[in-house]
Amino acid sequence: MKILEIKDLKKTYPSPEGGPQTVVDISHFSLEKGEQMALAGESGSGKTTFLHLVSGVLKPDSGEISLDGSRMDLLPEAGRDSLRSNRLGYVFQNFNLLQGMTSLENVELAMRFGAGVDKERAVSLLRRMGLSERLHHYPRQLSMGQQQRVAVARALANRPKLVLADEPTAHLDHVRGREAVTLMREVCREFGAALLVVSHDREVLSHFKQVEPFERLNRVLRPRQGVKS
Known about the structure:
The chain has 229 residues and is α/β, with parallel strands linked by helices.
């Protein structure tokens, strides 16, 4: 059963010259429930824009985005925010943790936009991430790897059907990056969430049996040309 299905998706921005520049043009893409996939592509290929469209952070110019049977593209901003909060988790490239909140508070904040705060579950998620001793630490007191683990815990806070991860090892060294991807995959399997990772890192891609070159999906890149991410 499909958790994500996309048809004829397009997003265009003004070019530096003033005319339209299409960044994303995808005829079809889908992901099954519980499936784990990586999209491979260089920086600036439009991968981040694609994830922002899937998550409802951006609204497409045209096309369909169905998330767990609901049309994300037809919803107003408030509706997209609600759907994202309840059915989707997003691990941003820069983590986007609130600096004035502890690890636990960052996870609990995500819960406020879903079914409500469940402190026991928030603590359990952070412990599952190996952060038992870091519950009340602020992001500035955490290593980059620990911040990434908080971001993963936050993404799983509302029992999402789909987790998106944008260049999840961009700020981690080789060893920490490998550990982070392994843990993310394990936890998504444990909680029954599908996982879609975008990356240009070959080490990250090597963890996935299903790896799709983004240029095969995005017609803007055929023939290849530079587009902003």
